[in-house]
Structures are given as structure tokens and as C-alpha cells.
Amino acid sequence: MSETARGLAALEAEVVACRRCPRLVAWREQAGREKRAAYAEWEYWARPLPGFGDPGARVVVLGLAPAAHGGNRTGRVFTGDRSGDFLFAALWRAGFASQPRSVALDDGLELRDCYVTATVRCAPPANRPLPAERDNCLPYAARELELLELASVIVCLGGFAWQAALRLRTQLGDPVPVPRPRFGHGAELPGRCWTLLGCFHPSQQNTFTGRLTGAMADSVLARARVIAGLA
Fold it and tell me: Which domain range does residue 104 map to?
């Protein structure tokens, strides 16, 4: 196991044990008890979710938070919900994922040159974390980015992730330009450590209405490959 992999494994154990945010702890555990009928036979994860992927990743995908009956159920971020179905299909088409769908923690999915993580590690009520909850979680992402020494691109899924990435840049010594760059699909912000790329979040609200299409996601991930020197 590489030094990076060991560091990520240690961080994973710390994340999974986290109970910093009482509201999120209560909600994630409530969702684990009050299961959807379709998942009545599942034993929900109902704990915080670490990031996962290739320790040598050059591209990091940063999302918002786990879904109550998606990642909070399966134990892996973006796994087991419609947003994840869209995202992993796009990562597969872009050559980052070994398969186009992820349904469970042990389904064999592997990421290549890519690492997927979230701004907030617990499922929040109504998918809306509070600012204090975001700030409690950001140190975990900062440590992931410090460990992922080859990463040069952060794909920010939605405005919440974009704003979090700007905060992370500042915390890690790469000040954000003034005026503060605004999020947009395809927005690009070079930096000393990483280039930020904006992508609309693959929520059903976006994908079902056509605000985010597969071709649009493909374009952002193709650009990420180019910036990371993978194309």
C-alpha cells in the first residue's frame, strides 16, 4: 500500500466515526431506521461517507452531500441513486470508471485517475446542509486534497461545491481572485494547485429537465482530462 493510500485509509476511519453535527447525525440515523419500502431488506450505512477512488487521481469530483437513501444506504457517495447513475455513467464514458453504474459498496466499481468525494459527509435534511455543517466537514476535504498530490483538477458539481472549493483553495494557500468567481456550467478557474471546473449537479431536477445532459457532462469531463494531462 502506498503512503497516499495509507493516509486516505486513516482519514476514512476518522470520517466514518465523525459525530460533529448533531442535526446530521440524527437525520442520517433516522433515515437508516425509516427505510424506503424498496430498501426494506437493506442494512443502511447511516454514517458519514469518506471519499473514494484512485490514490493517484489527477481529477477530483466534488459533490454536495450523500442522499438519505442513496449513499447513506450503500456506504459509498453517489452510489444507489439517480444522481449517481448519471454521474458514474459519465465517468465511465470518460474513461474514469470501470463500469457505468454503482449500486453497492462491493459491486466492483473502480475509479482510474479519479477520486470522488463530497463537501458534506452526512445526508442532510432536504439536501440542504447548514453553513456550520459545511465548515465542520471542509477539513476532511482539505486533507484529502493534500494527500492526493497528483490531483490538478476539481470538478465541482453545483454551486455549493464550487463555493466550498473556493474556500478550500484559500485555506490551502491559494487565494481566490477578486471579484469572487461565479459558478456556472463549464466555468473554469485556474489556480496554483488545481483548476476548478464547474458542472451542473446531476440531480433529477437538472437531468430530468434537460438542464444537464449527458453530452454536457461529457464535455466537462473531457476538459478535465485535457487539463490533467490525460488526453
Answer: 3-227
Q: Domain count of the chain?
A: 1
pLDDT at 58: 98
**Residues in the chain, pLDDT under 50:** none
Which cell numbers hold the place of 150?
A: 497528483
Provide the CATH number for the domain around residue 32. 3.40.470.10
**pTM attached to this predicted model:** 0.97
